[in-house]
Amino acid sequence: MTQPKYPTKVTIYTDGGTNPNPGPGGWGAILLYEDKNGKHERELKGRENKTTNNRMEITAMLEGLKALKRPVNVIVYTDSKYLKDSIGNWDNGKSCQPFGWVIGWEAQGWAKRKGPLKNVDLWKALIKECKKQKSITVRWVRGHSGNLYNERCDELATKAMLEIDWDWKTVEESIMDTD
Predict the structure, then answer these.
(1) Is residue 16 annotated as part of the catalytic site, yes or no?
(2) 40 is catalytic
(3) Residue 85 is among the residues annotated as catalytic for this protein
């Protein structure tokens, strides 16, 4: 069987983190796909000087999806249950079973029963990217348990975080900010 000219399925592993939280952070994503030229891996990483762990987890998936050039079937692996449960699965641009929490948050004007929702900018951008794909299945993988690609994403996120031009005043402010 010949491979298609362009990939029809892409697997994306993601991870993000900060040290401390909140503080400087990094994210990593690995895209795995196959086309007429064989099997491919593409690594992505990025950083922010003042952020949170959840923002980096969301950003890793967002940037992984943004790297796709055309609609495909996507499987995303994350070690963040928050991300998995929040975004849910997608089919033909629509949320499907199991539905993610974002559907309720969006319907409630981006609020939770207990107050304002954090990271609305990223959730809106992530939904926009999810709607572009044929399907998205999000699966949870236990972090730091020996999964090769999850471990590599953690390394990418850590490397990106360490590349930060440390602004110690910002770090100190983030540590002292207790709300």
Answers:
(1) yes
(2) no
(3) no
Per residue in 102-140, pLDDT tens?
A: 999 999 999 888 888 999 999 999 999 999 999 999 999
Q: Which residue of the set 63, 79, 88, 129 is catalytic?
A: 79
Distance of CA 141 to the CA centre of its chain: 13
Q: Map out the domains of the chain with their CATH numbers.
A: 9-168 (3.30.420.10)
Contact 42, 31 (CB under 8 A): yes
Phi first, then psi: give them for residue 165, nearest 5 degrees: -80, 95
Candidates 48, 63, 129, 154; catalytic one: 154
What values do phi and psi take at 105, rounded to 5? -60, -45
- In the chain, what are the helix, strand and coil shares in percent, each to the nearest 5? 35, 35, 30
Q: Is 57 in the active site?
A: yes
DSSP 132-160: TSSEEEEEE--TTSS-HHHHHHHHHHHHH
